[in-house]
Amino acid sequence: MAEIMLLLVFCLLIAAAVIFKEDRRVRDELRTQLTQRDAELADARDDARRQTAEAVRLKRLVVESGRSPAERRQLDEEWQRLVASDEVVSRMREAGLSPERLVTSAADVATVQPLLERGVTGEEIAQAVTASQALADAVSAQGSVSTLSPAELVRLAGLGQAAERSGKGEHDWPPIINLSEAAGYSFAVGSADLTPEFAERLRSKIAEEVVKIMGRYDAGVVEVIGHTDEQAMGKRESNLDRDLIPVLSGKTDIGTLSPADNAGLGMARAVSVARLFRTDPRFSNVTVIPLSGGQMVLPGDAVSDGSSARDARERRRIEIRVRRPEQPTQP
User: Mean pLDDT lowest for which of 136-140, 224-228, 242-246?
Assistant: First the structure.
């Protein structure tokens, strides 16, 4: 009985295998047929598109056959413009531009277009805008120049560039004019009287040079500094406290001054030069200030240590410096 059952099961398995195999074959045939149908359908669609395109072409030919040559030419031109426009729009989108935004900003585009036609690149325009904004911010931060017109700003910038090129900026010091006895600029011994040669050179070449320096540096003050060597002066009574100001103003002759020491001699000689400048019309709007360095300052702006009492002609000198007037301070 058991053998019969085993035989029956074996037969069933064989039958099932045959059925499964036949089912697979049927599925494979159906899949093949489906693939063929898809290919045929794709070909049919392609044929339909070609036929549609051909129909459109034939229809256009039919329509154009009834038009005049001028109408056909106009139609061709319009078609070419349409194709070109479509190409331009495609390129704009590829470059990240929005045609719609350009339409709304047509006025701005029209403003920029002349610059592009002159060869200015978009990058240069962007840099110019950035620089302009930075300049506007800088000008806004400067209250003293924020109200100036562009022309005035350009003028000031030009003056600044010219000063920078010539080394005469606002913070550059004007040159010092050094007139030493060793170079031929002398006074009478122990006196503030100018020699005729020295006085003539002061009125001509030296005054002209001082005026030029004042104009170049926008200066309004001239400082005349008298320097001496360390040789002691003979004992005498000084009258500078009483007569110095009258001599400077021209009320008293320079020869009446009697300094008692080197500090007084330096001041008296500075007054002698300052008085000559004050009588020159070119210095009518200039403040001329006499000062004394006495025997304290060596040439080159070094302070003396008091160890040289010899006859030093290079130390006996007049220095002329120019500067701008000081602004009065609020108490």
Answer: 136-140
pLDDT of 306 = 82
| CATH superfamily, region 177-323 | OmpA-like domain (3.30.1330.60)
Residues with Cβ < 8 Å from 238, sequence gap 6 or more?
Answer: 258, 259, 260, 261, 264
Give CA–CA dist 110/123, Å, rounded.
17
Average pLDDT over residues 152-162: 62
Which of 227, 236, 302 lies closest to 265 in space, CA to CA?
Answer: 227
Whole-model pTM: value is 0.50
The CA distance from 320 to 176, in Å, is 6
Contacts of 229 (CB under 8 A, 6+ apart): 262, 295, 308, 309, 310, 311, 312, 313, 315, 316
Residue 257, amino acid: L
Give the mean model confidence (pLDDT) for residues 135-158: 60
Domain residue extents for the chain: 2-66, 114-165, 177-323
